[in-house]
Amino acid sequence: MNWQKSQKVCQELHRRDQSVQSATGLNTFFLVYVRRPLELIIEPMNLVKPVTKYPNPAPIVHVKGSHREMGRQIGEQFRNLIQHSIDNAKAIVASDYENLQLDWEGAQIQARKYMPFAQERYPQYVDELVGMAEGANVNYSELTVVNGLEGVTSDSLHLTKCTSLAVNQLYTADGHVLAAHNEDWLPDDEPDIYVVHAKPDDEPEFIAMTYGGLLPNVGFNSEGLAQCCDSVYPSDSRIGIPRVIVSRAVLGARTIGQAIRHTLVPLRAAGYNHLIAHESGEMYNVEVSARHFDLLYGEEGCLAHTNNYLSQRMESIEAEPDELVHTRVRYFRAMHLLKENHKHTFKTLEAILQDHVNYPDSICNHSIFDEIPVDREKTIVSLVMDLTARKMVLAWGSPCTNSYHNYDMDL
């Protein structure tokens, strides 16, 4: 390529980058190559893709009664979303067959191995799944795959972009306790987002977000307890109680100690980081694997977590830590933004959740351009919870594009 041609390419790249930046506020990159006979091709490397705008709040379902009755009510209300999440799980398993050596029938067989452990320790949440399957008129075995997908796929879904935050009275403008979360997951599940406002017969009332056929686990309850979950990647995973069911149990806790005990239930399959915050200002990162755990206390008044272990004890069992660079960048970025402001509000935490430093692997995640379906992910929902006021704001889809809407405990 001669000098004049190179200059022309640079001018064209600059023009296109300015156009994208003007429209989105983001930079992009372009792939440049030459065909024979000489023909210059300039293509965007998909670093800026259109995001779906959701003008309306995410739908909410109000349920009450026994766990089976609540599951059935969710299934009846969101039958199409639950079926869609099963279809998505089927597609994911099929797309990664070469790696998993597992078809959909095999995935159901594998998922069924986990359920006796859940039935023994948490039969009430198995009842919720049974009720959901009944209400949505879907196959229960297929629904167990959705709720055990990380274990069934042996964590080949190496999704590393969730971000969780919390600040107590020392770091808020009004003395309230706030917790926040970006849920980064497969883009195909984004249309299936909804909110559950539940009043169980035997547990605290709670509000939580979920999608498709997953049991709800990221939210807060009437005891002033909140939970945010971040996937982590230990090397000691096993067949046991699925992570989603373990984390669902935390929403049923009445005290901080009880919440932490639920995360450490014996015979768990693996673990999340559970960011647990309480209206009193007590905040913990509970880093969990199948056989190990550590507690990290929020003594400075602010707390963050992404998808790598922070505890030295847990780092020693982290699988492929060199694959978790972006999550470390997000953690330090989140802590930087939390600590530079001692007067946090809903709006300041929303701004952190919208941050694009290290784009596309940023806190507001846009990693949707990988050719391999299991490697695609984005922020599909973003939320901030006020544990003092018992309210939540939630943005459905990318928070940089979509508005936050209110959800209150007294709805």
Summarize the structure.
This protein has 411 residues and is of the alpha+beta class. The chain has helices at 3-24, 67-77, 79-95, 97-100, 104-121, 123-136, 140-147, 149-152, 243-250, 256-263, 312-315, 325-339, 346-353, and strands spanning 30-35, 39-44, 60-65, 163-167, 178-185, 193-200, 206-211, 218-221, 225-231, 272-278, 283-288, 293-297, 302-305, 378-386, 391-396, 404-408.
Mean pLDDT: 89
CA distance, first residue to last residue: 65 Å
Roughly how many Å is the radius of gyration?
22 Å
Low-confidence stretches: 19-49
What is the total tally of β strands? 16
Describe the structure.
- The radius of gyration is 22 Å and the shape is globular.
- 34% of the residues lie in helices and 24% in strands.
- It folds into two domains: 3-44, no CATH class; 60-408, Penicillin V Acylase, Chain A (4-Layer Sandwich), CATH 3.60.60.
- The relative contact order is 0.14.
- The protein is an alpha+beta fold and 411 residues long.
- The model is unreliable at 19-49 (pLDDT under 50).
- The chain is built from 13 helices and 16 strands.
- It has an eight-stranded mixed β-sheet. It has a six-stranded antiparallel β-sheet with strand order 13-4-5-14-15-16, with helices on one face. Strands 1-2 form a two-stranded antiparallel sheet.
